[in-house]
Write a structure and sequence with these properties.
By secondary structure, the chain is mostly helical. The chain is built from 4 helices and no strands.
Length: about 90
């Protein structure tokens, strides 16, 4: 694996971790939508990074727990099968 491939894999793993964190927050708070999660996080200190991730997902049209799960599954497939369709969110900075 060359440096470029390692960098791509690292980026995918970071995105996977972010999606898992969002999904976990939704489940822990018994919320069904990212809008509800965004509202809940708005009053909590130290959640800036998570709010940013949720905001990016909302801008992409991801709204529900099911949407997040679908994004997670697509990303896992992309990691397992290079060349599979990419979800395309949270690209390189």
């Amino acid at each position: 694996m060359n440096d470029s491939q390692e960098g791509d894999l690292y980026e995918l793993l970071l995105r996977l971790d972010a999606l898992e964190e969002v999904l976990e927050e939704l489940k822990e708070r018994s919320l069904e939508t990212l809008d509800a999660l965004q509202a809940a996080l708005a009053t909590e200190p130290g959640t800036e990074e998570l709010r940013e991730i949720v905001g990016e997902l909302l801008r992409r049209g991801v709204r529900t727990t099911e949407d997040v799960q679908r994004e997670l599954e697509m990303l896992e497939r992309h990691i397992d099968e290079p060349g599979a369709p990419d979800t395309g969110w949270l690209g390189p900075n």
